[in-house]
Amino acid sequence: MKATQNEWRRQAAVDQDPFREFIIAHLNRIYCVQSHMAERLEELLDQQGLSGLRVALEETLGTVEQQLTRLYGIYLLLNGVPAMEGCDELTELMEVACATMYGQFAGEVFRDLAIFFYVQTAESAAMVSYKQLGLIVPQVGNQRLQALLADLCDGVAANHFVVSAIMEKHWKSL
Question: Which of 10, 27, 61, 85 could cross-link 41 (Cys pair, CB 3.0–4.6 Å)?
C-alpha cells in the first residue's frame, strides 16, 4: 500500500510540475516526426524499384514504430495524450522533405538521396526536442521518466539503417 501511495505522490508531483507543458510540447514534436515517418515509410515501401533499400526501410519503419510505442509509455507516465498541436511548421518541413522522394529528380541515385534527406531531416527535427528534454527532465526528479526518455533517445540511432544502406549502395569508398 505504501508503494502505491508513494507512486501516486510522485505522479501528482509530475502532473503539477511547471515543466510538464514544456515536456509535453516537445514530446508532441517527437510524436509528429515519428508518426509522419511511420506513415511515409509505409507508403514508400509500397513503391517499386527500391533495390537494395527495402530491408533497410523495413528495419527503419520497425524502429520508428518501437519509438512510437516508447513515446506512448512516456505520455501515460505524464497522464498526457499525443497531439499534433503546434506542429504545423514541422509537418510542413517533413512534407517538403518527403516530396523529394517521389520523383522530383530522375534516377535511382537521386531518389535514394531524397530518402537520405528525408530520414536525416526527421532525425534532426526530433533530436532538437530530445536534447531539450534531456536538459529539462532532470529538473522534474522522476527517475522513471529520465530512463524512458533515455531509451527513446537511444533508439534514434536505429534510423541509420537507411542512411547506412544508401551510403553502402552508392558511396562505398566514403
Answer: 61
> In this structure, are residues 67 and 61 in contact, taking their beta carbons and an 8 Å threshold?
no
**Residue from 38, 56, 33, 3 nearest 128 by CA:** 33
Q: Is the pTM of this model over 0.90?
A: no
Measure the CA–CA gap between 136 and 146, rounded to whole angstroms: 10
Domain count of the fold of the chain: 1
19-42 burial string, b = 16+ CB within 10 Å, else e?
ebeebbbbbbbbbbbbbbbbebbe
> Under a CB-based contact definition with an 8 Å cutoff, are residues 54 and 169 in contact?
no
How many Å apart are CA 3 and CA 12, to the nearest integer? 14
Q: Which ranges of 17-53 would DSSP assign to H, the alpha helix?
A: 20-45
Q: How is residue 2 written as a grid cell?
A: 505504501
Range of 160's domain? 2-170
Give the pLDDT confidence of 107-119 residue by residue, as tens digits: 777 888 888 888 8
